[in-house]
Amino acid sequence: MAARPLTILFMPESAYGPTNQCIGIGDVLRRRGHRVVFAAEASWRGKLTALGFEEDLVDLAPAAEADDAADADPGAFWKEFIRDTAPEFRKPTVEQLESFMLPTWQALIDGSMFCAPQLRDILARVQPDVIVEDNVVAFPALLTAGAPYVRIMSCNPLEAPGREIPPAYSGLPAGDRSEWAPFRAEYDRTHRAVWEAFNAWVVEQGAPALPDLEFVHTSDHANLYVFPQEADYTDARPLDPTWHRMDSSVRETDELYAVPAAVGDRPEGSALIYLSLGSLGSADVDLMKRLVDVLGRTPHRYIVSKGPQASEYELADNMVGAEFLPQTTLIPQVDAVITHGGNNTTTESLHFGKPMILLPLFWDQYDNAQRMHELGFGVRLATYDFAEDEMAAALAAVLDPGKRAELAAIGERVRARDGLRRGADVIEQVARAHAEGSTSS
How far apart are CA 332 and CA 351, in angstroms? Predict the structure, then answer.
């Protein structure tokens, strides 16, 4: 007798990166005949049903704010939050801990607390065989619902800490430990009280205590993370058997992208480059204007993901672009990528074997930028302070034929490991074991 279809509940963070991560894996599982439900934030209404998923959405804020969110673009809350907070991104990472990281954690915690009753109702309705969370904060109801819990860590894997690797969110080099301890001490100083209060609330809700100074639980069943073997930290920080590496996780739901003739037909020696600072980073209009100005004076051609403030600036003559672009079908057609260092774009670039110039802004983007730079897979520049000749040198470095060949070979190996289906397999195995155990009992 054929095994029954499983019910799989995804709860991603409301940003594009984690939600797209879950969309990619969820699409594989849906095509295998399983019921896939998204307990996403309200601004995703209609976007997920269009891809064949069920939606049972949550509000992360009170009614008036939630109504605004429901009428907004997906992830609109965080776009506005990042736009208003952009001046903080000019500070060193250690100074961002109190002025940017801490209020961001608090906003995420507030959302977790607010939606707890809704989430319990959703779980009671859906009755999932497995619960999958891709978020950086805990939702206690996910651990008390009676179904196995799987964590996806779609940020840089420094988020799983270790004494022999740099501290997460620091952007500090692996080969120089001189600033590791001061950064950790400042993180403790700025975050300890908020963590203690959140941990107490999590325990009050019936969930296990959080690991020290971490805001999300590790699963006893399975944990997934997205980072290629060639760039991983496991030689310095081994992970236990519950952890499964997805070398990449490239969703297969994006429409095909046809390169416009305006940039596809280009002079000999001119490269085609993709520029994207993500849906959040591109909200910094002044930064986008400067990049357009500097890159507009180079001999190359560019495809630009303009982001949510697309109407606020014009592109140069050697560029085409739009507010949103189907990134996973676009990257294979370019020669290099200029990125903020978000984990999705970084790992997708490696999946397709493209060298990168990295301009980090916040969170784990500094860690990705530093890792690509120290491994020679890209060039990290000072996002707001790079000189025009530094950008020219970085372009020359990533477009070097030897560098492009090296990255192309890495891309072939990453694609062969098929991380997307590896992740779907792990989730399916956990859900099947639970379903069969429930049936036998």
Answer: 9
DSSP annotation of 384 reads T
Given a contact cutoff of 8 angstroms between Cβ atoms, the answer to whether 139 and 133 are in contact is yes
54-55 vs 35-38, strand pairing mode: parallel
Neighbours of 255 (CB within 10 A): 9
For the beta sheet containing 7-12, the strands, ordered from the edge strand earlier in sequence to the opposite edge, are 54-55, 35-38, 7-12, 130-134, 149-153, 222-226, 243-246
120 close to 205: Cβ distance less than 8 angstroms:
no
How far is CA 4 from each of CA 54, 127, 147, 328, rounded to the nearest angstrom?
Answer: 18, 14, 17, 32
- The tokens describing 87, both together, are 């001046």
Single-letter amino acid, residue 314: E
Which helix or strand (DSSP H or E) is residue 114 part of?
helix 102-126
d(CA 313, CA 84): 18
Q: DSSP code of 58?
A: B
Q: pTM for this one?
A: 0.91
Instruction: Determine the length of the chain.
Output: 441
Digit-coded pLDDT (tens) for 412-431: 999 999 999 999 999 999 99
User: How close are the terminal C-alpha atoms of the chain, in Å?
Assistant: 19
Strands (E) across 188-324 are located at: 222-226, 243-246, 272-276, 301-305, 319-322
Cα-based distances in Å from 371 to 236, 239, 300, 331, 376: 14, 19, 26, 20, 8
Identify the helix (H) or strand (E) that includes residue 8: strand 7-12
Query: Locate tokens 């594009």: which residue?
Result: 16
Q: Measured between alpha carbons, how far is 341 from 345 in angstroms, rounded to an integer?
A: 7
Read off φ and ψ for residue 37, nearest 5 degrees.
Answer: -120, 135
Neighbours of 343 (CB within 10 A): 25
* Mean pLDDT (whole number) for 393-408: 97
Q: Return d(Cα 112, Cα 116) in angstroms, integer.
A: 6
Phi-psi region of 331 (alpha: psi -120 to 50; beta: other; left: phi over 0): alpha
Q: Of the candidates 348, 160, 171, which has an alpha carbon nearest to the alpha carbon of residue 244? A: 160
Q: Residue 244 is encoded by which pair of tokens?
A: 């499964």
Residue 409 is classified by DSSP as: H
Of 5, 1, 170, nearest to 92 (Cα)?
A: 170
Q: Residue 203: in which H helix or E strand, if any?
A: helix 180-204
Residue 87 has a CB neighbour count (10 Å cut-off) of 10
Indicate if the pLDDT at residue 68 is higher than 60. no
Q: Is the pLDDT of residue 1 over 50?
A: no
Instruction: Give me the residues paired with residue 8 across strands.
Output: 36, 130
